[in-house]
Amino acid sequence: MSLHVITGAGGTGSPTALLLAEAGENVRLISRRGSGPQHPLIERVAADASDADRLTALTRGAASLINTAMPPYDRWPAEFPTLAAALLTAAERTGAGYVMMGNTYGYGQVNGRFTEDLPMAPVSVKGKVRAQMWSDALASHQAGRARVTEVRASAFLGAGAGSLYNFTVPPLVLAGEPAAFPGDLDVPKTWSYLGDVARTLMAVTQDDRSWGRAWHVPSTAMISVRDLTVRLTEIAGAPAPDLQPMSTAELAAIGQTSPIMAEVIEMMYSLDNPDLLDSTVTEQTFGLSATPIDDVLAETVKAFSPHA
Q1: Strand 26-31, strand 3-7: pairing
Q2: Nearest to 98 by CA among 56, 156, 48
Q3: Phi, psi of 124, rounded to the nearest 5 degrees
Q4: Helices and strands (H, E) in the chain, number of each type
Q5: Which class for 306: exposed (0-12), middle (13-18), buried (19 or more C-beta within 10 A)?
Q6: What is the mean pLDDT of each run of 10 residues along the chain (308 residues)?
Q7: NAD-dependent epimerase/dehydratase domain: from which residue to which, for each copy (predicted)?
Q8: Backbone dihedral angles phi then psi of residue 44, each to the nearest 5 degrees
Q9: Where in the chain are the domains?
Q10: How many angstroms separate the Cα of 1 from the Cα of each of 19, 20, 108?
Q11: CATH code of the domain made up of 3-153
């Protein structure tokens, strides 16, 4: 059995910890509150992952260091660099393979499909943060100081997903109430199920082909926000959704009292345009595939039911 250290016990960290533990691997799950799933092979530790010395001590002897932790959305520029530096330092000091949980922000605005060979060309502050994190990690890998890889996902979907869609749409439309979502509701989007994210994170820790490059999570059918929501209500047996677009002005008004929603404004380019994640290379390399969209939506319905 190997030891895998995971930072962050949220929507991606916890299912990854469970997958590894159920496969017979030892897991040390680090979060500020020491939370996470209970399993005989999961050791839950309360610690600050941005403390490089503490994180190094907790990572010694581990085969991999998987980061799924992140600061609050509105504090990325101020806090993510310190966290990223601590993680990379711990990987360099211990030799643990460093697996970064990332997204598509670093690519910027792309006409066509997102593929892993695209250069980093961010057009947002948060995209620049992500791109710099990957650039620093890749430089360390190329210099022989660490083994690094990044798993990139699109918009999260599924029970427990801390996503803009989950926050704003299912709780309302499944109750028969009107809902609003920013951007163009009819352009095709790719959706990354948390279970598929966890399977990809696990796969890259166990294959030497992973290191030195990024991998895209096998993601669910390319479907617009509107069509996704219609299917969600059909599966739930709920009334047809009353879903309206949320304008930038409306976002700004909400942002007066919600710093998180205010941060969505700079990402409107990604909400107004198609977001098509190509995961062909990951699927062919690791033998992974995306969970059917109806299965993901059925899980979402169950999570948002009154008795959940």
Answers
A1: parallel
A2: 56
A3: -135, 160
A4: 13, 13
A5: exposed
A6: 96 98 98 97 98 98 98 96 98 98 97 96 98 98 98 96 95 96 97 98 97 96 95 96 95 94 96 96 98 97 78
A7: 5-208
A8: -95, 125
A9: 3-153
A10: 14, 10, 40
A11: 3.40.50.720
Task: Please name the amino acid found at residue 224.
Answer: S
- Nearest CA to 121 out of 135, 141, 100 is that of 135
Are 12 and 18 in contact, with CB atoms under 8 Å apart?
no
Q: How far does the chain reach from its first CA to its final CA, in angstroms? A: 35
Report whether 67 contacts 49 (CB < 8 A): yes
Instruction: Give the position of tokens 């390399």.
Output: 285
User: Within 13 A of 252's CA, how many CA atoms are on the CB side?
Assistant: 4
pLDDT value at residue 307? 53
User: Phi then psi for 263, rounded to 5 degrees?
Assistant: -70, -15
What would the two tokens of residue 308 be? 């959940």
In the chain, alpha helices (H): 13-22, 52-59, 76-94, 125-142, 164-168, 170-173, 194-205, 225-236, 248-255, 259-262, 268-272, 280-286, 293-303
Tell me the two tokens of residue 124. 């947002």
Query: What does the DSSP 8-state code read for residue 224?
Result: -
- pTM, two decimal places: 0.96
Q: For tokens 């299965």, what's the residue?
A: 295
Q: Residue 308: what pLDDT?
A: 47
Counting other chains too, the contacts that 280-287 makes at CB distance below 8 Å and 24 or more residues apart are 281/115, 281/116, 281/215, 281/216, 282/200, 282/215, 282/216, 282/217, 282/218, 283/218, 285/207, 285/209, 285/215, 286/200, 286/203, 286/204, 286/207, 286/215
Per-residue model confidence (pLDDT) at position 305 = 81
